[in-house]
């Protein structure tokens, strides 16, 4: 079976860690199966959809390395939706209703008060042509509902238990009782189409074979399967992944604005750290950094995705980001270092990468070895003696141990009393990379000047 999946964001805001996880799972699935990954903009909400968000979504996906094989926009397909709507109206599966939102709210309240399920009572199906003409003459405008196939026959309006079943590629056997649901609105009174309607038509026309999305769509899937059937199409295979929650188990939704992909990028996180975290969180695989997305493709399987909520902790992502940097070989960062005007070699990168939390931290350590540092001198006499014992260059891997041994013998200092004042003098910092690898990079002229209390 040829695999085609889609990521279908609405361009009404920035992508965040929640919906990018859906994109990544779909992308990995497509690449694992040798299939296609489509980007579809669900932009039928003309008031809220903005071109700036279309551009931003593309930028976010590109930054993460998620290339797409085809792009579509729902706003280009209105004529197709119109044609399908007429087809369903003619078949009696779309029918007009005239209640206002306030009237529907009151109707639901009355049903609840009587101990009845608050589902639509299909008043719209009981209207005669004269009834509809009268309502329209009063200024009423119809919205259109899709009639679920949950009655004994076309003449019956009473919903009965009607089970829609499918084998979910993530959750296993799933069942939705469409007999307990209202006939869903497919066309608003203003003529605009709702997501459920347009999405099914797009999935048919674009040949979508699998839909991987959040578990909040499980009930909606029962309705969509009915709509696929009404249009004579085979529903795609469905997979519903768990949703993200905060580290404390609370809903993440209110915090997603601060977790946009743009904000993560601006905070200096590595794209592969974000991809690794999103791909592995809530799965049976350990959440570890991967420098090559091919490794994640190889690991991916829908069966590994847990049905339990996945806990997202920004601190865990930050730690993963640091671990990723610590593993990056020089070949993968050489051009980025040049972009920061850091002309260096592998020795420098290997010396400092273990102390980076974000890539830009490298600038601090480049300043230490090649820029100007204001030394911190705790004991002038000790620093002077250490300066006198600096060996001549060339320096190598044994220079630090040979020099500190000589300083120890000359001053009697040892342990922290030996190493800490030397670090402060040479780097101006309390902690950092091992000085045995940093000292040869600093070089004798700078080291000597700093031990003498000079900014160098």
Describe the SSE topology.
Blueprint: E1 4-7, H1 17-32, E2 36-41, H2 51-64, E3 70-73, H3 78-90, E4 94-97, H4 101-113, H5 123-126, H6 129-137, E5 143-146, E6 163-168, E7 172-177, E8 185-187, H7 195-205, E9 210-214, H8 218-230, E10 237-241, E11 244-246, H9 261-266, H10 271-280, H11 293-299, E12 310-312, H12 314-327, H13 334-339, H14 346-352, H15 362-370, H16 380-388, H17 399-411, H18 416-427, H19 435-442, H20 444-451
Helix pairs in contact: 1-10, 7-8, 10-12, 16-20, 18-20
InterPro entries: aa-tRNA-synth_I_cd-bd, aa-tRNA-synth_I_codon-bd_sub2, aa-tRNA-synth_I_CS, aa_tRNA-synth_I_cd-bd_sf, Glu-tRNA-ligase_bac/mito, Glu/Gln-tRNA-synth, Glu/Gln-tRNA-synth_Ib_cat-dom, GluQ/Sye
EC number: 6.1.1.17
Enzyme class: ligase
What does this 3D model show about the protein?
This protein is α/β, with parallel strands linked by helices and 456 residues long. It folds into five domains: 4-70 and 165-177 and 194-244, HUPs (Rossmann fold, 3-Layer(aba) Sandwich); 79-163, Glutamyl-tRNA Synthetase, domain 3 (Alpha-Beta Complex), CATH 3.90.800; 245-327, Glutamyl-trna Synthetase, Domain 2 (Glutamyl-tRNA Synthetase, domain 2), CATH 1.10.1160; 330-370; 380-451, Orthogonal Bundle (Arc Repressor Mutant, subunit A). 44% of the residues lie in helices and 12% in strands. The chain is built from 20 helices and twelve strands. The chain has a three-stranded parallel sheet with strand order 1-2-3. Strands 4-5-8 form a three-stranded antiparallel sheet. Helix 2 (51-64) links the parallel strand 2 (36-41) and strand 3 (70-73). Helix 1 packs across helix 10 (271-280), helix 7 crosses helix 8 and helix 16 runs antiparallel to helix 20 (444-451).
């Amino acid at each position: 079976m040829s695999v085609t999946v889609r990521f279908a964001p609405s361009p009404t805001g920035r992508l965040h860690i929640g919906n990018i996880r859906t994109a990544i799972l779909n992308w990995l699935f497509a690449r694992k199966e040798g299939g296609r990954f489509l980007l579809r903009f669900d932009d039928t909400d003309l008031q809220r959809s903005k071109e700036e968000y279309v551009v931003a979504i593309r930028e976010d996906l590109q930054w993460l390395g998620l290339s797409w094989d085809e792009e579509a926009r729902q706003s280009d397909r209105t004529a197709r939706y119109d044609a399908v709507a007429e087809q369903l109206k003619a078949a009696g599966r779309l029918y007009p209703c005239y209640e206002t939102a306030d009237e529907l709210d009151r109707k639901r309240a009355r049903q609840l008060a009587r101990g009845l399920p608050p589902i639509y009572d299909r008043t719209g199906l009981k209207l005669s042509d004269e009834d509809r003409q009268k309502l329209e003459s009063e200024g009423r405008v119809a919205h259109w509902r899709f009639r679920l196939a949950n009655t004994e026959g076309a003449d019956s309006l009473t919903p009965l238990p009607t089970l829609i079943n499918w084998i979910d590629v993530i959750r296993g056997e799933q069942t939705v009782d469409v007999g307990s649901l209202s006939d869903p609105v497919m066309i608003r009174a203003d003529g605009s189409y709702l997501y459920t309607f347009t999405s099914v038509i797009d999935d048919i026309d674009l040949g979508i074979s699998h839909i991987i999305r959040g578990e909040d769509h499980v009930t909606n899937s029962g309705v969509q399967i009915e709509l696929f059937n009404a249009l004579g199409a085979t529903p795609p295979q469905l997979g519903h992944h768990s949703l993200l929650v905060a580290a404390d188990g609370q809903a993440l939704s209110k915090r997603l604005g601060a977790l946009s992909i743009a904000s993560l990028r601006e905070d200096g996180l590595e794209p592969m750290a974000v991809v690794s975290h999103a791909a592995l969180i809530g799965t049976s695989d350990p959440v570890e950094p991967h420098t090559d997305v091919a490794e994640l493709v190889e690991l991916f399987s829908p069966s590994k995705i847990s049905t339990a909520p996945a806990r997202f902790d920004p601190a865990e992502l930050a730690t993963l980001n640091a671990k990723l940097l610590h593993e990056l070989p020089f070949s993968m960062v050489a051009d980025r270092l040049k972009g920061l005007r850091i002309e260096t070699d592998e020795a420098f990168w290997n010396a400092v990468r273990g102390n980076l939390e974000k890539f830009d931290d490298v600038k601090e350590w480049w300043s230490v070895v090649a820029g100007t540092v204001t030394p911190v001198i705790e004991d002038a006499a000790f620093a002077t003696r250490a300066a006198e014992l600096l060996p001549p260059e060339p320096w190598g891997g044994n220079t630090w141990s040979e020099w500190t041994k000589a300083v120890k013998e000359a001053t009697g200092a040892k342990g922290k009393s030996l190493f800490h004042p030397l670090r402060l003098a040479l780097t101006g910092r309390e902690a950092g990379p091992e000085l045995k690898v940093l000292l040869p990079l600093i070089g004798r002229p700078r080291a000597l000047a700093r031990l003498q209390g000079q900014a160098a």
